[in-house]
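Duplicate of #3305? Posting structure anyway:
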């Protein structure tokens, strides 16, 4: 059941950092960049900043997560344009480039600049706004989903991971309205982030019910199954 999509993916980080401060990021992306402390203190602090020297180092992977250790919402317009131009000029025809943001309205000024091999993503962990501020400073799920839905762009993917407690019908409706190419589905996995036991995870039953309903109209790739 678990998808191996991530095995074919690499992250390319010409821009690093984010101020949304998602609680689960401290144990994933931010932990990774802290290891760069000797080479770049800004990476260690997860301060938004540009690494232009990395522009020409696009990985040779079929899927490239562009600025995966960041949210490009915090990139300057000039930085975004340089990254988009580099993807167009140096990306290979067999590569797909994923641009992700939890504030997807930030893509609006660039929709006509993205090349055909670009997919836009956002993460929606739940349909519920209540209590979300304790998780992240990103736009709440209801705003984020509307921003993503309104983007006039042909290629979208949704990440429902880490999935929090949700309302089944509302989640299904959100996904249906966005109409993504496919959905990544996963839980936070207490196995990976033991310190995050406070996160309001769905039960395995709720998880698989959502999986089965979504699978009736969209391709669902399971990233992390509930234990
Ligand atoms: S939006 Fe992404 S990069 Fe930013 S803090 Fe949250 S998980 Fe980390």
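Output from current build:
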């Amino acid at each position: 059941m678990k998808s191996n999509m991530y095995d074919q993916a690499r992250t390319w980080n010409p821009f690093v950092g984010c101020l949304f401060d998602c609680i689960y990021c401290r144990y994933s992306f931010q932990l990774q960049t802290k290891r760069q402390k000797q080479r770049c203190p800004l990476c260690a602090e997860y301060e938004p900043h540009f690494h232009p020297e990395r522009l020409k180092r696009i990985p040779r992977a079929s899927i490239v997560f562009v600025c995966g250790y960041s949210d490009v919402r915090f990139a300057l317009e000039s930085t975004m344009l340089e990254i988009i131009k580099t993807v167009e000029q140096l990306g290979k025809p067999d590569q797909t480039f994923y641009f992700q943001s939890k504030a997807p309205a930030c893509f609006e000024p660039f929709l006509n600049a993205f090349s055909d091999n670009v997919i836009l993503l956002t993460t929606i962990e739940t349909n519920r706004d209540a209590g979300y501020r304790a998780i992240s400073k990103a736009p709440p799920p209801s705003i984020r989903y509307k921003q993503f839905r309104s983007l006039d762009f042909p290629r979208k993917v949704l990440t429902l991971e880490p999935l929090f407690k949700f309302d089944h019908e509302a989640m299904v409706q959100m996904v249906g309205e966005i109409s993504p190419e496919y959905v990544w589905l996963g839980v936070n996995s207490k196995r990976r982030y033991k310190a995050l036991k406070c996160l309001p995870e769905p039960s395995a039953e709720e998880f698989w019910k959502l999986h089965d309903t979504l699978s009736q109209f969209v391709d669902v790739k399971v990233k992390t199954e509930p234990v």
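Confirmed duplicate; merging threads. The CA atoms of residues 176 and 217 lie 8 Å apart. Residues 18, 20-22, 25, 29, 70-71, 102, 136, 138 surround iron/sulfur cluster (CB under 6 Å).
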